[in-house]
Amino acid sequence: MPPQETHSGTRLAGLGAVAVPSGMLSAMQIVILDGHTTNPGDLSWAPLESLGRLTVHDRTPDAAIIARAADADALITNKTILSAGTIRALPKLAYIGLLSTGVNVVDLAAARARGIPVCNVPEYSTPNVAQATFALLLELTNHVARHAAGVREGQWSASDDFCYWETDLVELAGLTLGLVGYGRIGRAVAAVGRALGMRVIAHRRQPGDLADDGTACVGLDELFATSDVVSLHCPLTPATEGLVNAQRLGLMKPTAFLINTARGGLVVEADLAEALDAGRLAGAGLDVLSAEPPPASNPLLRARNCLITPHVAWATRNARARLIDVVAANLAGFLAGRPQNVVN
């Protein structure tokens, strides 16, 4: 599909009346490298169109990045990687915006060395990811899809009793929910867990025995050893890559569940598959993998009691609309000399 191109307006429509000189707007070249997953056609790019000449590419292969971005003053990416070499090859570039919360696709040091702010969107998907976390957990514990499929296949109609179940059903009330990461999403997940009667503990970067809401904060090994459900809500960094490995999985109860709606690289996938297949873990619910889309060789695609959804925890229409609005507000703030959500 050819890129979409639109021309600038003179006001920041929908962005709270931030005033930007129309001459600057008309000169601003804005390029989105991979806009399809954010807006496959059900939303409008109008908030960004009002800021300059906008070109939207659905997807951009690595070999085409520099050519497509050569004239961009503002470059916006979701999963297209902007390496140090790419950033150095774009002398006109003044701003990088992210269609995401995660920042690992941009070489932040290279952008900082050029004086280019990199701005992310930190909060647009919080309720969606919390909802998806429990969608995965409830499927692992209540097996809704499995039983619904059995009913459709006629198993209930053929049953001798008024009810049946194919596997154990697990009550969440009274179980311990351990959260790795206790930012906005972690806190939202904690609130749902408490509403279901779960005890919540957390591990966070800031030291302390209690979070400001009274949640007990513990060490990683204690969290893995004592939790009935471990849910990951931390960023992928050199310090957290491979955080869930054979050693930590070995600490977990064989009745425990692992949920990952954060980043696939947090988990050593071969180690998790081995633990699941050996029955050393009751199940896993994953919305992310280390390579997306995954190669057919990924062992988790065939692992026992492993539910995988295709990185959709963030993707409700409401969340994607919020995302576009904040991406535009970030760029408007930069143009007005008041950058926001700068991560470098």
Protein model, in words:
The protein is α/β, with parallel strands linked by helices. It folds into two domains: 4-124 and 317-335, Rossmann fold; 126-308, NAD(P)-binding Rossmann-like Domain (Rossmann fold). Helices cover 31% and strands 14% of the residues. It contains twelve helices and 13 strands. The protein has a seven-stranded parallel β-sheet with strand order 9-8-7-10-11-12-13, sandwiched between helices. Strands 1-3-2-4-5-6 form a six-stranded mixed β-sheet. Helix 6 (126-142) packs across helix 8. The protein is globular, with a radius of gyration of 23 Å. The two termini are 33 Å apart.
